[in-house]
Design goal:
- This protein is an alpha+beta fold.
- It is built from 7 helices and 9 strands.
- The longest helix is centred in the last third of the chain and has 48 residues.
- The radius of gyration is 21 Å and the shape is elongated.
- Bound molecules: coenzyme A.
- Coenzyme A binds next to helix 3, strand 6, helix 5 and helix 6.
C-alpha cells in the first residue's frame, strides 16, 4: 500500500490533508469500526521512557529489533547515543503515558547519501496485533518523505513475519540473504498534501498527549485527596470516645 492510499484510508474525511492514522484499539475483526491512534514525536527528555520500553522487550524481541540480543547495557548505550537533532522518533502512549510502541527513523549521517533513512520499530508485547507497528511505519513514511528521503530501509530478520508483512504491504522490495532480509521502499517526493498531513498528525498527537497528562495529574490529585480524607476519618475514629 502506498503512502497516499494508507493516509487516504486514515482520512478524517474533512479535507484531503487532514489524515489521521487509525487502528483497532484491541485485536478485533476487520469489520469493526477503527479508532484513531495519536503518534507523537519523542524528544530527548523522554529518554527514560524509551529506555523503559526497550528494556521491557525480551531477548527474542531485542534480537529482532536490533539484529542481536542486546544486553541491558547495550540498550542503555543505544538510548544514550540517540541523536534527536538528526533523527526522528515517534511514540504511542497509554493512559499512564508509558511508551507502548516506538519507531526510530534514522537519517543518513553527513558522509552518506542524504536521501536515505532507516526505520526501526518495537511494540510492547501486550499491545501487539492492534496495528501500531503498521501505523508507526506509515507515520515514518510521511516524515521521511517530507524530509526529502527517497529510499527507506528496513533491516529485518527473515523470521520476522510481522515486520516483513508491514514492509511488503507498503510496497517495499524485500531481498533475503540467509537469515537476514533487507527491505527498501521508494518514496515519492513531498507534496503540499504530505506536508499538511504531517502538521495535522503532529497536532492531533500533541493534543492527545496534553489531555492524557492532565488526566494523569487529576487522578494523582484525587488519590492524594482520598488519602487525606481517609487519614482525617481514621484520626476522627481514634479520637472519638
Ligand atoms: C514487528 C512488530 C513491530 C509488529 O508490531 P504490531 O503492532 O504487532 O504489528 P501490526 O499489528 O501493525 O501488524 C502488522 C501486520 O503484521 C501481521 N502480523 C502481526 N504479527 C504477526 C505474526 N506473528 N506473524 C505474521 N504476521 C503477523 C498483522 O496481521 C498485520 O498484517 P495485516 O495488516 O495484513 O493484518 C512487533 O511484533 C515487535 O515489536 N517485534 C519486536 C521488534 C521487531 O521485530 N522490530 C522490527 C524490526 S526493526
Amino acid at each position: 500500500m502506498n503512502t497516499a492510499k494508507a493516509l487516504l484510508k486514515a482520512s478524517l474525511g474533512i479535507t484531503s490533508f487532514l489524515k489521521i492514522p487509525i487502528v483497532e484499539a484491541q485485536p478485533r475483526p476487520a469489520s469493526a469500526t477503527p479508532i484513531m491512534v495519536p503518534i507523537r514525536s519523542i524528544g530527548p527528555r523522554e529518554k527514560g521512557r524509551i529506555e523503559n520500553h526497550l528494556l521491557a522487550l525480551d531477548a527474542q524481541d531485542r534480537y529482532l529489533r536490533f539484529g542481536y540480543a542486546a544486553s541491558d547495557e547495550q540498550v542503555r548505550r543505544y538510548v544514550e547515543g540517540l541523536d534527536f537533532e538528526r533523527d526522528v522518533l515517534f511514540g504511542i502512549y497509554n493512559r499512564r503515558l508509558d511508551l507502548i510502541a516506538m519507531a526510530h527513523l534514522a537519517f543518513a549521517p553527513a558522509d552518506q547519501p542524504s536521501d536515505c533513512a532507516e526505520f526501526g520499530v518495537s511494540v510492547s508485547k501486550h499491545a501487539r496485533g492492534r496495528g501500531y507497528g503498521a501505523r508507526l511505519f506509515e507515520r515514518a513514511v510521511v516524515a521521511a518523505r517530507n524530509e526529502g528521503v527517497g529510499m527507506l530501509f528496513i533491516h529485518a530478520l527473515s523470521e520476522n513475519a510481522a515486520m516483513l508483512r508491514i514492509a511488503r504491504k507498503a510496497g517495499a522490495k524485500v531481498v533475503r540473504t540467509g537469515s537476514e532480509a533487507e527491505a527498501h521502499l521508494r518514496l515519492p517526493s513531498a507534496t503540499f498534501d504530505s506536508r499538511m498531513s504531517e502538521i495535522a498528525l503532529q497536532q492531533f498527537a500533541q493534543l492527545d498527549y496534553h489531555l492524557k497528562t492532565r488526566a494523569k495529574q487529576f487522578w494523582a490529585f484525587l488519590e492524594a485527596l482520598q488519602e487525606i480524607r481517609s487519614g482525617v476519618r481514621s484520626a476522627r475514629d481514634h479520637s472519638s470516645p
